[in-house]
Amino acid sequence: MLFPEHHPIQVLFYEFCRSGIATSSSLVFPSFPPCLTWPLAAPSRPHRNRSPVANLGLPPPRPRVPRSPAAGTATRVTALVECAGERPIQEHAGAEEKASKMSSTVPKSSNIFWHDCPVGKADRQKLLKQKGCVVWITGLSGSGKSTLACTLGRELHTRGKLGYVLDGDNLRHGLNKDLGFKAEDRAENIRRVGEVAKLFADAGLVCIASLISPYRTDREACRALLSDGSFVEVFLNMSLELCEARDPKGLYKLARAGKIKGFTGIDDPYEAPLNCEIEIKEVNGVCPSPCDMAGQVVTYLEEKGFLDE
């Protein structure tokens, strides 16, 4: 069945084809009988001075003008849309970096409320027969932080006390794998670990956090999270020369060769604690044994009542 040339359906299909959606010379619906075919050629005798769409009383179609990114712009990806930016590349980078930093420091909603549970910290501590705290081990790379943390964890386990180690490198494999080593990333890394450590302490565990944590302000912010005096800062005061000589991971060698930028102690500062609870120093240019260092920490925890039943 062939519709008249100016039939409304014929005109609509003509505009459908002209828009670029259809490209064949005719449009056939297989589910209909073969005779139902609409030619897609333009009408040969349109109404004088009026377009086919105007014959239906519809507004004229908007012209389709292809757009391409202008020079000096970048393609960026937002939530679900990829689009061409219309600002300089440098401005895009700055805006995205700012958004990235703010995303983890600004609450997503103000309509949130703290919900208390009937079982509190005191109940958990009574069950575990110990008091929750955070042992924060800080120092240069190669000073023995991870070794001390693991040795301390084993010593606590031997005594029947429950502890958990939060190692800086291990956390960068999961919780903090989206962070680098720029100043703002380091700050966010410590903030996250501080919040997690606070939860472990609230659960009644001895949380052992082992991180370089080079900036004093960041460590003090973590201390402020535990206002009950349960933050124990342990400073492994080993000289740069000793740490670089040990270099268990080969990082100092890479930093000296310029292959690692912003390495603490080489081209990025380490701010030593001013009022730490425990300071462990090298003896005659040698780092104390792991058991000796762990013994100092356990003695302190016992004296302060953290391991009391």
UniProtKB/TrEMBL annotation:
Q: In which pathway does it act?
A: Sulfur metabolism; hydrogen sulfide biosynthesis; sulfite from sulfate: step 2/3
Gene Ontology CC: cytoplasm
Q: What is catalyzed by this enzyme?
A: adenosine 5'-phosphosulfate + ATP = 3'-phosphoadenylyl sulfate + ADP + H(+)
Q: Which domain of life is it from?
A: Eukaryota
Enzyme Commission identifier(s): 2.7.1.25
- Give all residue intervals belonging to the APS kinase domain: 131-281
The record's listing under Pfam families reads: APS_kinase
Would I find Ion transport among this entry's keywords? no
What are the entry keywords? Amino-acid biosynthesis, ATP-binding, Cysteine biosynthesis, Kinase, Nucleotide-binding, Transferase
What's an example of a GO molecular-function annotation for this chain? adenylylsulfate kinase activity
Identify the stretch(es) annotated as Disordered. 44-71
GO terms of biological process kind: cysteine biosynthetic process
Query: Which family, according to the similarity comment?
Result: Belongs to the APS kinase family.
Concerning PANTHER family, the annotation shows: BIFUNCTIONAL 3'-PHOSPHOADENOSINE 5'-PHOSPHOSULFATE SYNTHASE (PTHR11055), PAPS SYNTHETASE, ISOFORM D (PTHR11055:SF1)
Job of this protein: Catalyzes the synthesis of activated sulfate.
Please report the name of this protein according to its UniProt entry.
Adenylyl-sulfate kinase
Species of the source: Urochloa decumbens
